[in-house]
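DEPOSITED CHAIN:
***
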Amino acid sequence: MPLPFAAASDFLERVSPGASIMVAVSGGSDSTGLLVALHQALLQRPGQGLKLSAATVDHRLRPEAADEARSVAALCERLGVRHFMRAWDAEKPATGVSEAAREARYDLLADMADDAGADLLVTAHTADDQAETIAMRAARNPSASNAGLSGMAEAMLFDRRKWIYRPFLSCRRADIRAMLETMSIGWSDDPSNEDCHYERVRVRRSLAGGPSVERVSDAGVRTQLSMGAADIAEQHLTIVAGTVGLLPQIAATCERDPLRYLVGTLAAILGGRPFAPPSTSLDRIVDAYLAGERGRWNAGRVLFEVRRDELYMLREQRDLPHVSVPAGAVRSFDGRFLVRNTGETDITVTAGGEERAVPDDLAALPRRIAQGASRVLPIVAASGEAAFSMENILSPFDRFLPGFDRILANTLANHFGRRPYGGAPVKG
């Protein structure tokens, strides 16, 4: 595996000249090592015109965090690197604090990157983190069809705003710490990293001295799977009114694994959820479609129906919300549509309901499918004159888009009438 300085140099070699890079630095060994390695590597390539800044998020979950942020600021001052710091001051949830903290961290990092004029963010996820991630995903679903077993992508687009790269994904934590010790640079240890209440800590201890990451991670397989799904979508997929997905009989002759990946991704979008339905349900539905077995199935808030050897997918007619959108506000409706109220009157968005007539753009579908789609389409009501816009949410991609899936995401964005997901100033 490459040593930290070599990994940093290899990454900078791929970054477009003149780009501005922001490093997320918590004060731990990995992120401190990434900052130092990138800084040293930049000193050896002044002609590239790259800029470096650093950002720290204080989640306000530990009293020591403020001192750790100040230590990072002091290190940045010594290195001549501009430093930004934000705190997560929002009320903390009673449950799911780790996931909420992750969401808040990325929001704050993206805000700081905007403030700094940074073109991309980099984080210090390591080969050790990758092995732990794959082990946790395998424990939940060890099936070879689990795309998550490819681990974390090197690149991820956050919130359609900033690309985030992980230059140390091939580096060991031990090598990072050895580099810092050689340079007499200290770091902070988060006590939660030793708390066995957390799944990752338990997995980390179980993996100590275990197999190397190369034997369990294959990003190329995931990329090819996603590209195969994009090809099937390009050739065969029809989206009607942003609500119904249709795959014709000929699509059942395509390779199973990419087809399954596409169906799972579509189910997430049409169901308004960030993840595909459970693996067992997805397998049952895809295998029935491939076998030409007619029937109806429900999974992940989506109705799947195979009729005349065509596969239809649309939102189930249950648990549909009523969403109030104040004047000037933006709200999600059912995880499926983003509603922007551009007027001066508050609006309410509901589903079509039992009495809604089939609109013209659904009329060519089989009657039962058209009626079901009509009942889950959003309807806007207002006490006065309403002004609004509405677009599909691509739930698996709009918040966190792994680089594996960018081609598929752009193919589906085109089908749903969304603008494409932009590229990063990094080659490869």
Notes: The radius of gyration is 24 Å.
